[in-house]
Design goal:
The complex is a heterodimer of chains A (111) and B (358). Chain A is an all-alpha fold and 111 residues long. In chain A, 67% of the residues lie in helices and 0% in strands. By secondary structure, chain B is an alpha/beta fold. The chains are: A mainly alpha (111), B alpha/beta (358). The complex binds iron/sulfur cluster (SF4) (2 copies).
């Protein structure tokens, strides 16, 4: 089998990070669990946000995890793809809006 | 979408011993599954014991007008196993003499058994509180001779429990076949029209949701909300409850898991979601499943795996409540499917939502 940096089976071992720093690890998982509880936003909405962020962060583990999680919550393919476009739009907008900083700098230096 | 049962295809997986071998030995590359027996032993729940009989589930035949991808029965139009009127008579005797309050008819499509109506009429007379027919909905639209089923159900106050994988056409048809969604919608509208599923109606109409792929069902309560909203807005359909059921790795679903290389991950997902609190109420503890030829099993899944009850009494003709009560339930790795998350049975979750793990 060809070696890659990412092994999908490692996702199942995520919980093991507590082994080398129990207190911080546990605090993280407690926080993580709370964040995804049903609140002002539904768990379904949170799962879709997580899916979009997983893509902008380009984390393969999170993409796998939240593709499955959204499916489990009955989210449709169309909804999933739209969520990713929202992430992509923000990411590209965030890149482009820095163009204003570039323009400011260039105008100042090259006025 | 399959067109034939595994049995008709001559597949290895049509044999229960082959399925059991895969379930017991696994085909894992990374790690091994703990055995279900060891897992439940950790919380002193082994052996699982049968309690007092409450639900009699009768499988009246494996014939079905559909060939759904994930069918744990491996049902289809080519399956000929069908319960005879004689065996039905034996079941009726037991219904009369047992304390069971619920009768649950399943299949295949139970309506395709030629003696289905006779059986419903006879069984309705014996004072069962909840008389369930598991209808796949499309049967109501399959052929003229079934068009009056909603009226027939109403006449006998049958509790209709129907499968509906999703509120969208794409997902439903993917699992159950092209055109199934539209026919199911039409059938639901017809059931609504005679009074089924209305908020204050006694004519119970519940839907069963099971995932369309290699993933577990989401939270039952929020799925129910989403189903209700979508079906009402899009099709003006109402129903009572949604039961979220986990797909068990048996027959065509097992075949699909292996073929799509999802078997290992799926089994690990089940074990990760294992919830010791769900063990207490697994349906085999208060249910008895009867096969088309009258043999007794702890559940419909054990029936398909040909794992008979662990009792001297093996057949409905020898039924003896005392000998069956307290028997050890026969378990294997497929039982992880009933104990994942909030638990899964034919009536949906086995523990209330607040106690579950979402
Ligand atoms: S899942 Fe139900 S409707 Fe589908 S083939 Fe099996 S018995 Fe028939
Ligand atoms: S598969 Fe059958 S025997 Fe196993 S836990 Fe579920 S209901 Fe019980």
């Amino acid at each position: 089998m060809s070696k890659t940096y990412y092994d999908p089976a490692d996702l199942r071992k995520f919980g093991n990070i507590t082994e080398w720093s129990e207190e911080l690890g546990n605090k993280f998982f407690e926080y993580y669990g709370k964040v995804f509880e049903e609140g002002a936003l539904t768990a379904r909405e949170k799962s879709l946000i997580a899916l979009a962020v997983a893509h902008t962060e380009q984390c393969p583990y999170c993409i796998d995890a939240y593709s499955k999680d959204t499916l489990q919550r009955g989210v449709t393919k169309e909804e999933m793809m739209e969520a990713i476009h929202v992430g992509a739009a923000i990411k590209s907008g965030a890149t482009l809006v820095h163009g204003v900083q570039m323009m400011n700098k260039v105008n100042k230096l090259d006025g | 979408m399959a067109v034939k049962s595994l049995k008709k295809q001559g597949s290895d997986l049509a044999q229960s011993n082959k399925q059991l071998e895969i379930l017991s030995n696994g085909i894992f590359q990374s790690g091994e599954l703990p055995t279900f027996k060891n897992k439940i032993s950790e919380t002193n729940q082994f052996p699982l014991k049968a309690k007092k009989l409450e639900i009699l589930q009768i499988n009246v035949g494996y014939m079905c007008n559909q060939v759904c991808d994930h069918c744990h029965v491996d049902a289809g139009p080519d399956r000929k196993e069908i319960m005879t009127r004689d065996t039905m008579r034996q079941c009726l005797e037991v219904i009369k003499n047992s304390g069971a309050h619920t009768l649950d008819l399943t299949g295949g499509a139970p309506e395709m058994n030629p003696d289905f109506r006779w059986f419903v009429e006879e069984a309705a007379k014996v004072g069962i509180k909840d008389f369930i027919v598991r209808s796949n909905l499309t049967i109501i639209r399959a052929n003229k001779k079934y068009y009056d089923l909603p009226e027939f159900f109403k006449k006998h106050n049958v509790h209709v429990v129907s499968s509906m994988p999703h509120w969208t056409r794409g997902k439903t048809d993917k699992q159950r076949g092209d055109g199934v969604f539209d026919k199911s919608i039409k059938a639901l509208q017809e059931l609504n029209a005679v009074g089924y599923g209305m908020p204050n109606s006694d004519l119970r109409l519940d839907l069963v949701y099971n995932p369309s792929g290699a993933f577990l069902p989401g939270d039952q309560a929020s799925m129910e909300k989403d189903f209700k909203k979508a079906l009402l807005e899009d099709f003006n359909i109402q129903f009572h409850n949604l039961f979220a059921i986990t797909n068990l790795p048996i027959a065509r679903f097992l075949d699909y898991l292996i073929a799509s290389e999802n078997y290992e991950d799926y089994m690990f997902s089940l074990v990760e979601a294992y919830n010791p609190a769900a063990v207490k109420n697994v349906m085999c503890t208060n249910t008895l499943s009867i096969s088309w030829d009258g043999y007794l099993f702890d559940c419909d899944f054990n029936q398909m795996l040909e794992l008979p009850v662990n009792s001297k009494v093996k057949h409905i003709s020898e039924y003896n409540e005392e000998l069956l009560e307290g028997r050890n339930i026969v378990i294997s790795q497929h039982c992880y499917g009933c104990t994942a998350g909030a638990g899964s049975s034919c009536q949906g979750n086995t523990i209330p939502a607040e106690a579950g793990i979402s």
